[in-house]
Design brief:
There is one protein chain. By secondary structure, the protein is mainly alpha-helical. The chain folds into two domains: 285 residues, no CATH class; 110 residues, Orthogonal Bundle (Cytochrome Bc1 Complex, Chain D, domain 2), CATH 1.10.760.10. The protein is built from 19 helices and seven strands. Strand 1 and strand 2 form a beta hairpin. Helix 3 crosses helix 4, helix 15 packs across helix 18 and helix 17 crosses helix 19. The longest helix is centred in the C-terminal third of the chain and has 18 residues. The chain is globular, with a radius of gyration of 22 Å.
């Protein structure tokens, strides 16, 4: 199934693969309606589960056939290439039994031995028996694609799969999903969607050096070129100021009154969440709004007299104000507001650096077919100019966050291969 998105993001940075989104659009068309109309149809329910689990994102290479694998994931330990999970008998899973499928999805046991935790079996282990059976029924209908994939390209000693036995003993929690009797049905449904199917914590929960979840659940983390934001209920860096409706709108369209999606999250919305039923989107929103309130230490914003702030303000007026407006309000449901923006207040500026250097395409969803794009400025602005304008944005308009240094920009520029044009 889907390889862990946090590892995918380590590979791709801005990983919205237009070809993939187009190739799976027909496959996932009317998925939510199918879910509503086919409660007793295992295959249709399984198709909905595959969408909710975003299986296609990792098991489809750029320009490749859906689910045929071949996508290289550049993990902190080396390259893992995603497997072919079409019904092809020679190179896919067409010859598998249900028991083999269940072992892979929920227990991390593949045809070649233990799976790497880049495959989020640590989340899928909580799937119900009936959901796994329906998912299997659907996967058997996926057209076969003959594509042999060499999955393990890891260097020694990480290429030794037997070492994963120890990792599983230490970190693999096999407890099934258990509804919380003190919560509503909607919140419990949201928990199942968030914690199990959509496995949001894979990206949004910081990891240890060994790749397992820390105790800082949903508090956000940087993933080579992007920052998966804080999803906790705090007003400064999280979802504290978002209403349940804001969350629903964002997951359905990619935009809301606060922001617009970019990078990896756009892919999640295009391939997965926009196709969920209204009831499931409402459940996800209910789950996140039911999380405990959290406070964070808010830094003191830099004064307007700071040299970097003064330089950044000049750059903002020239480069940014035409779209984001002079007061940073932007355009609702199109161009993100910069005022009191949790993404801007994030401790890490990685996503801001990626967007400012490389630009970003707005989400193109059924609910929002024409997303606004932002151009990249890598070719135009020096490192100190980018650092100054980001520092200004992060310390004005009711924001407060650490300054961005020219060295931070240089590092991001090198990682993204975002070269500046040299004028002669």
């Amino acid at each position: 199934m889907i390889m862990a998105r946090f590892l995918l993001r380590n590979t791709l940075g801005a990983c919205v693969r237009g070809g993939v989104a187009l190739s799976v659009a027909a496959l996932f068309a009317n998925a939510a309606q199918a879910q509503d109309a086919s409660a007793g149809t295992g295959i249709e329910h399984g198709r909905y589960l595959a969408i909710a689990s975003d299986c296609v994102a990792c098991h489809t290479a750029s320009g490749g056939k859906p689910f045929a694998g071949g996508l290289d994931l550049n993990t902190p330990f080396g390259i893992i290439t995603t497997s072919n999970i079409t019904s092809d008998k020679a190179t896919g899973i067409g010859s598998w039994t249900f028991q083999q499928f269940d072992a892979a999805v929920r227990h991390g046991k593949g045809a070649n031995g233990n799976l790497y935790p880049a495959m989020p079996y640590t989340s899928y282990v909580k799937m119900t028996d009936s959901d796994v059976a329906d998912l299997w029924a659907y996967m058997r209908t996926v057209p076969p694609v003959s594509q042999k994939v060499v999955e393990n390209k890891l260097p020694f000693p990480y290429n030794i799969r037997s070492a994963l036995v120890a990792w599983n003993l230490l970190f693999f929690d096999k407890k099934p999903f258990t509804p919380d009797s003190t919560k509503s049905a909607a919140v419990n449904r949201g928990a199942y969607l968030v914690e199990v199917l959509e496995h949001c914590g894979i990206c949004h929960t910081p990891k240890s050096i060994l790749g397992h979840d820390s105790s800082a659940t949903y508090q956000g983390t940087s993933l080579q070129g992007w920052h998966a934001p804080d999803l906790t209920n705090n007003d400064h860096t999280g979802l504290g100021t978002w209403s349940a409706k804001d969350i629903e709108t964002y997951l359905r369209s990619g935009t809301n009154r606060h922001t617009a999606s970019s990078g990896p999250m756009t892919e999640v919305i295009v391939n997965s969440t926009q196709h969920l039923t209204d009831a499931d989107l409402q459940a996800i929103a209910a789950y996140f709004k039911a999380l405990p309130a959290r406070t964070v230490d808010v830094p003191r914003p830099l004064p307007a007299t700071n040299a970097q702030m003064a330089a950044g303000k000049r750059e903002f007026v020239v480069q940014c104000s035409a779209c984001h407006t002079s007061n940073g309000l932007g355009v609702a449901n199109m161009i993100p507001t910069l005022q009191s923006n949790p993404a801007i207040n994030a401790k890490s500026p990685d996503s801001l650096l990626n967007i400012l250097l490389m630009g970003t395409s707005g989400p193109a969803t059924v609910a929002n077919p024409t997303g606004a794009a932002m151009p990249g400025f890598a070719w135009k602005l020096h490192d100190d100019q980018i650092a100054s304008v980001l520092t200004y944005i992060r310390n004005s308009q009711d924001n407060a966050a650490p300054a961005v240094l020219a060295a931070d920009v240089a590092k991001a520029r090198k990682a993204l291969n975002a070269q500046q044009t040299v004028w002669h």
